[in-house]
Amino acid sequence: MDRDALADFLLRRREALTPADVGLPAGARRRTAGLRREEVAQLATMSTDYYARLEQRRGPQPSVQILGSLARALRLTEDERDYLFRLSGHSAPDRVTATDYVRPGILRVLDRLHDTPAFVVSVLDEVLVQNDASRALIGDAGSLTGMDRSGIYRWFASPETERLRYREVDHVRQSRSLVATLRAAHAVPGARSRACEMVTALSAMSDEFVRLWEAHEVSRRFEQHKVMVHPELGEIEVDCQALFTEDESQALIVLTAPRGSEAAGKLEFLRVLGTQTV
């Protein structure tokens, strides 16, 4: 790990960004060139003290997960992300199989979506980054680890909690859709992928999954209209739009409701309230 080069790289990339680049208000009396340390820490969901120690050349070796969060927060290109990993003493991620990296272009679109739930998902239905409105509606995915990061996995491994977000009448359709999505992901990059590991794990615990998997349905589409169930506000009807990356490895999901509708009022209430309990 090259602490001096890492600190300098983080500082230069932080100084090269403006609040507008990452969807933050500029505020008044800014003395710092670029972003403040606390702003980078906020975007990367880490403590300001931890980030400050990295820039001060006295921090511990960052984990792969921390580096992925920093790469997103600093809007690094894939080459810059690889460089960050190597400075920190890690091998650069495999660009074919890695899914946590979100391209700056997609992040810039997400940064401008404040009034409606929006989030970026991988081919395994892992929420990689989300806005506050999304956290208020579907929960904060930042604390999830391992296979639990995947909505596909949670749907079958923890149905008693995960399926509460959908009406019971929609459960069969959602199960089929998720398994078809996993089928599409399973074909690339092959049998040794994380998708294959997930298939093995789910096959051992869910008869429903096995039955649907054997049907060989393959698809990666999102329902254009769905009904989400919030634990306190009840049913919220939303339209779902998906913007895929060029290689279709990730998708930006945006949930909206017609202006003036009851659902729009509920989404606005959630946006203002945030993740507080009603």
From TrEMBL:
Residues 33-81 form the HTH cro/C1-type domain. Coiled coil: none annotated. Pfam families: HTH_31, MLTR_LBD. It comes from Microbacterium sufflavum. PROSITE patterns: HTH_CROC1 (PS50943). This is Helix-turn-helix transcriptional regulator.
